[in-house]
């Protein structure tokens, strides 16, 4: 057999891989990265690893629906199967032209992923895939087909088989094998089967119609009805166990007009547009959402500035703390969980690690606040896109039926980054400004990954699977974050995923209710971006978003009802001071702040004097400072600091002894353990912080003082965790190798295969022939013979096959061209590693010359 004939008819998957070029091998390793961890020593090991159950299951899970249907059809076809048989199973007797046109791509993809090998006249599905997809009583085939006649009659008595032949009008045979073969030929003959089925009673045809699309198994009694008896006698139903019958595969295929699947899906369902908006409106809406997202995260961190909620013993937030956070942010609890998890994933909050462990802002939060507005958003959006933390599962149950809490363990879902990126890519495939229908996005994702996520009820619908829920969460979270606006992908969101500019702008007028029959072809999912590519995309998104933000304002509008209106985003310094001096009453396009005695006292506690507050308001208000606000500040300032608290455990000092009398007489002071030490001094059992809180609860405005008697300024942002790193995403299997690693891996596998398969000259006393050593057996020669052969190869320039054991004890075969032998070492060009290396001679197990090239 010539070399070309061997290449055309490989006898194993390893041989099929051996005739591939380097580009094809690299494509295999890129699509199935688990095969490269660690790098296989040769192509035989690569083929063995590609056929393991875990690797095959992972590969099947990543097939699209039509390619998976093709593999399922091969699992019920002959082994090996010619391409024409596969075409009949997929396209049916009528040869559906759409299916026929799409089938070569599916077969090529299965070949690329090493799930199918062999020429078109001998297509073979790898054994593990056939075992997973072929029908059995315990695991029916996804096609709904049952066993073939040969399999179904394996335990049937020869006499019974002959009775079936007689019932269908076939001559008897001398053995069961030929009888089963004759029956199978009858069932695959379209014309004769049509005549056989035409003579069936209507009730018998109804039974076949119920079984034809699966499941193919049914139950019968020990004395079946006449219409069932007719089917059993003619072999159209075959018994598989007492009381159980099956519809043979050949009969079902005839009734299906040759199709293995009821509905082949060669073309992915389109992503449909629900409405179209002007791109400028989409970008402006997304920019507004982005500003709101930044404000929400900052508000969350301010709430936790002095130390946030306590950490549960098992980790995470309690349900009560999540509710409090939702109330503080004025959002539903699932949305609060999203913001908390996003801040945590971005490294802005973490546990402080103290004995009384609490959540607090990290030092990275202060650095993040110093960034430009667009860059702060880009960091949040980039974190969201790549994080595996999934806030949507908060409130659900884990495998041990424990409630999943925000910031707690077990919230990582490794498929989340891929689904987020793919959903946004589908949106990017629509015309600019078009928003999709949710169902069309979900249908497309189900087509692309039909096996991801369990089906609870066995039907085709997968509304409860994780991938579908991740897609729904992605659509809502992208809107919250400002990646989309009005459901359409904004320009910064398009840049965030590295999508190209849209080919043409949407020309439909803006109209929120317009239903557009837009069917836009979306390209297949690309490989996930590398960290460097993602960083570049995030930076580009920030540059596109920056011009969409309004300029920050340096003024507010003060009103007589003790409120201030910020008609837009404020400068950071103004927002910080106003956030201490007043409480946020409402948010939106304009933020409303309200001044209260408590908020003014908070500003005074932070070190501001009344004169400073008056000057600040006059400087930043476009309206005159209202008189009620002036009176409020002066009134609080007059009372501020009249009482001073220090450490005794604590004490209260006041020049007005009548005020101290009032405190002692108040029943609310009983828990503070107060007693008079002097006419102007009270001692307390409570600590200074508790004493300050208790006196303020009684209506007083005390100030803390130092040991020197100076007023202490308590700043709200004093508590920070030690430096913390953001949580690392949990990868979904091995990472996709880059081009450098792929090139090196292919070269190493090729070289290892060369070492394992290159013909050798027979050594002294060995069998004749130049075949490679079986099973990777290393050559064995004595030290003197090894040295002599090496020295001879240096003079002749010939290549040698050697066995080598490294310092860790790992054995390998190598093909080397010795350059120099001295000092117990051989320096040679190693064809296996494609570089010059030096090897200790005492680690060489043996050496053999390569056979002469006879090609």
Report on the architecture of this protein.
Residues 556-678 form the Helicase XPB/Ssl2 N-terminal domain. Keywords: ATP-binding, Helicase, Hydrolase, Nucleotide-binding. The structure is a single chain. The radius of gyration is 38 Å and the shape is extended. It starts with a helix and ends in a 6-residue tail after the last strand. 43% of the residues lie in helices and 12% in strands. The longest helix is centred in the middle third of the chain and has 25 residues, at 279-303. The chain is of the alpha+beta class and 855 residues long. The strands form eight sheets. It has a five-stranded mixed sheet with strand order 19-20-18-17-21, covered by helices on one side. A five-stranded antiparallel sheet has the order 25-24-23-22-26. The chain contains 34 helices and 26 strands. 37% of the residues are buried. Helix 21 runs antiparallel to helix 26. Mean pLDDT is 84; it is low at 1-7, 453-463, 504-523, 713-717 and 764-775.
How is the topology of this model organized?
Layout: H1 3-8, H2 13-18, H3 22-31, H4 43-50, H5 53-61, H6 65-75, H7 83-91, H8 97-112, E1 116-117, E2 124-125, H9 127-133, H10 149-152, H11 158-167, H12 176-188, H13 190-198, H14 202-211, E3 217-219, H15 226-233, E4 238-241, E5 244-246, H16 249-255, E6 271-276, H17 279-303, H18 319-329, H19 333-345, E7 349-351, E8 359-361, H20 363-369, H21 373-386, H22 416-428, E9 434-436, H23 438-448, H24 466-481, E10 484-485, E11 488-489, H25 491-496, E12 519-520, H26 531-545, E13 557-559, E14 563-566, H27 572-581, E15 583-586, E16 591-594, H28 597-605, H29 610-620, H30 627-639, E17 644-646, E18 650-653, H31 657-665, E19 675-678, E20 681-684, H32 688-697, E21 703-704, H33 739-757, H34 783-796, E22 800-805, E23 811-822, E24 825-830, E25 835-840, E26 844-849
Parallel strand pairs: 17-21
Antiparallel strand pairs: 1-2, 3-5, 4-5, 6-9, 6-12, 7-8, 10-11, 13-14, 14-16, 15-16, 17-18, 18-20, 19-20, 22-23, 22-26, 23-24, 24-25
Helix pairs in contact: 3-33, 6-8, 6-9, 11-12, 14-15, 18-19, 21-26, 22-24, 23-24, 28-30
């Amino acid at each position: 057999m010539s070399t070309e004939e061997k290449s055309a008819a490989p006898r194993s998957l390893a041989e099929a891989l051996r005739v591939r070029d380097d580009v094809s091998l690299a494509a295999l390793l890129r699509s199935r990265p688990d095969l490269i961890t660690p790098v296989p020593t040769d192509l035989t090991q690569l083929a063995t690893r590609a056929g393991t159950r875990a690797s095959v299951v992972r590969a099947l899970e990543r097939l699209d629906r039509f390619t998976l249907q093709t593999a399922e059809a091969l699992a019920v076809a002959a082994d090996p199967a010619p391409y024409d048989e596969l075409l009949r199973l997929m396209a049916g007797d009528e040869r559906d032209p759409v299916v026929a046109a799409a089938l070569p791509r599916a077969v090529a993809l299965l070949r690329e992923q090493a799930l199918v090998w062999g020429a078109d006249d001998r297509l073979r599905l790898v054994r593990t895939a056939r075992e997973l997809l072929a029908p059995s009583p315990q695991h029916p085939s996804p096609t709904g087909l049952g066993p073939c006649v040969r399999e179904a009659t394996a335990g049937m008595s020869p006499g019974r088989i002959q009775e079936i032949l007689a019932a269908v009008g076939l001559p008897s045979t001398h053995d069961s094998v030929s009888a089963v073969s004759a029956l199978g030929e009858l069932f695959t003959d379209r014309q004769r089967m049509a005549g056989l089925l035409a003579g069936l009673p209507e009730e018998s045809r109804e039974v076949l119609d119920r079984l034809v699309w699966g499941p193919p198994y049914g139950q019968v009694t020990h004395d079946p009805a006449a219409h069932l008896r007719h089917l059993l006698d003619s072999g159209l139903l075959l018994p598989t166990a007492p009381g159980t019958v099956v519809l043979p595969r050949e009969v079902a295929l005839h009734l299906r007009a040759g199709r293995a699947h009821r509905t082949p899906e060669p073309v992915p369902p389109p992503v449909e547009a629900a409405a179209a908006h002007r791109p400028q409106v989409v970008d402006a809406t997304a920019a507004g959402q982005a500003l709101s997202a930044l404000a929400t995260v900052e508000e969350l961190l301010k709430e936790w500035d002095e130390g946030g909620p306590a950490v549960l013993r098992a980790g995470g937030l309690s349900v009560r703390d999540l509710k409090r956070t939702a109330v503080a942010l004025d959002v539903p609890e699932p949305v609060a969980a999203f913001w908390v998890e996003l801040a945590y994933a971005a490294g802005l909050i973490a546990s402080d690690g103290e004995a009384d462990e609490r959540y607090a802002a990290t030092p990275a939060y202060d650095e993040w606040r110093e960034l430009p507005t667009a860059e702060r958003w880009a960091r949040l959006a980039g974190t969201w896109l790549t994080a595996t933390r999934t806030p949507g599962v908060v409130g659900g149950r884990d495998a041990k039926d424990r409630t999943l809490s925000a910031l707690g363990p077990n919230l990582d879902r490794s498929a989340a980054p891929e689904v987020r990126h793919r959903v946004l890519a589908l949106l990017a495939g629509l015309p600019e400004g078009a928003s999709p229908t949710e169902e069309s996005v979900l249908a497309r994702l189900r087509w692309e990954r039909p096996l991801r996520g369990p089906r609870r009820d066995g039907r085709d619908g997968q509304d409860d699977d994780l991938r579908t829920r991740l897609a729904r969460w992605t659509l809502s979270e992208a809107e919250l974050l400002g990646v989309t606006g009005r459901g359409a992908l904004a320009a910064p969101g398009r840049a965030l995923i590295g999508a190209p500019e849209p080919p043409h702008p949407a020309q439909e007028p803006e109209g929120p209710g317009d239903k557009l029959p837009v069917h836009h072809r979306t390209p297949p999912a690309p490989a996930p971006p590398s960290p460097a590519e993602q960083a570049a995309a995030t930076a580009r998104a920030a540059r596109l978003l920056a011009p969409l933000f309004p300029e920050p304002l340096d003024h507010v509008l003060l009103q007589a009802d003790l409120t201030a209106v910020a008609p837009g985003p404020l400068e950071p310094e103004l927002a910080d001071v106003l956030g201490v001096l007043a409480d946020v009453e409402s948010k939106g396009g304009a933020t409303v702040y309200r001044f209260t005695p408590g908020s003014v006292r908070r500003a005074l506690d932070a070190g501001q004097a009344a004169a400073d507050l008056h000057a600040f308001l006059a400087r930043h208000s476009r309206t005159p400072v209202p008189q009620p606000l002036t009176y409020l500040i002066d009134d609080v300032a007059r009372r501020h600091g009249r009482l001073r608290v220090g450490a005794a455990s604590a004490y209260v000092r006041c020049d007005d002894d009548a005020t101290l009398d009032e405190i002692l007489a108040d029943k609310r002071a009983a828990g503070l353990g107060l007693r008079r030490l002097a006419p102007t001094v009270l001692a307390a059992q409570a600590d200074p912080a508790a004493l300050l809180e208790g006196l303020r609860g009684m209506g007083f405005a005390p100030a803390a003082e130092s040991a020197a008697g100076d007023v202490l300024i308590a700043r709200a942002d004093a508590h920070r965790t030690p430096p913390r790193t953001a949580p690392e995403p949990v990868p979904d299997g091995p990472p996709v190798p880059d081009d450098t690693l792929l090139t090196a891996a292919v070269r190493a596998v090729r070289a290892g295969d060369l070492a394992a398969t290159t013909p050798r000259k027979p050594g002294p006393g060995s069998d004749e022939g130049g075949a490679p050593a079986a099973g990777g057996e290393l050559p064995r020669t004595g030290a003197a013979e090894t040295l002599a052969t090496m020295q001879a190869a240096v003079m002749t320039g010939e290549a040698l096959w050697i066995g080598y054991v490294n310092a860790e004890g790992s054995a390998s075969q190598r093909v080397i061209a010795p350059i120099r032998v001295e000092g117990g070492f051989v320096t040679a060009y190693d064809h296996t590693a494609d570089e010059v290396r030096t090897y200790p001679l005492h680690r060489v197990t043996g050496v053999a010359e390569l056979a002469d090239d006879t090609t």
